[in-house]
Amino acid sequence: MSSKGRTSKGSKASARVRGLDGVAVGRSAWGLYRETRRPGAPGLAARLWALPRLLRDALTGRYPGVGPGKLLLLAFAVAVYFVSPIDAVPDFIPVLGWGDDTAVVLWFLMGLTRESGRYVEWAAGRSSEAAEAAELQ
After folding, report:
1. How high is the pLDDT of residue 13?
2. How far is it, in rounded angstroms, from Cα 38 to Cα 51?
3. Residue 92: is its pLDDT beyond 70?
4. H-only helix segments in the chain
5. Residues 110/36, Cβ–Cβ less than 8 Å
6. What does the pLDDT look like over 94-110, one tens digit per residue?
7. Ramachandran sector of residue 104 (left: φ over 0; alpha: ψ -120 to 50; beta: rest)
8. Which of 67, 69, 65, 73 has the alpha carbon at shortest distance from 116?
9. What's the pLDDT at 12?
């Protein structure tokens, strides 16, 4: 076992889903919280409000931050993992079996929420550029 707590092929390694264990999801949630509290950064409510627009603009190719293929592929992979009976921890184990599915879904949603913060900043910059261009005309 290394100093970072990784195991080679032990029982903990089988419970991890490519770094998406409960600790990683908790760190990601804390990072998202800190990111929303940064001065000048979009808050959590603005990010959640922007999610439908982010999805629309990403899927139509208007938003350059996430390509439609990548977004659809990740959403499909998360959905398949969530529905699939083949998991890192089998679903018939009451709490742990559902925990890995929940961790993957939360990871995806937190990633979308983080990206929506970048989207809000991108959209604000785009609208200010449009307003400046309208003033010049």
Report:
1. 41
2. 19
3. yes
4. 11-15, 22-37, 44-60, 68-83, 94-136
5. no
6. 888 888 888 889 889 98
7. alpha
8. 65
9. 46
Q: Which residue has the tokens 């929420």?
A: 113
Are the C-beta atoms of 104 and 81 separated by less than 8 Å?
yes
Record the tokens describing residue 135, joined without a space: 């003033």
DSSP for residue 38: S
DSSP code of residue 134: H
44-60 helix and 68-83 helix, angle to the nearest 10 degrees: 110
How far does CA 118 lie from the centroid of its chain? 12
State both tokens at 28. 């990601």
The Cβ-side half-sphere exposure at 26, using a 13 Å CA radius, reads 4
> What does the pLDDT average to over 26-36?
75
Length of the chain: 137
Quote the percentage of the chain above a pLDDT of 70: 74
- Both structure tokens of 113: 């929420």
Cα 66–Cα 31–Cα 89 angle in degrees, nearest 5: 80
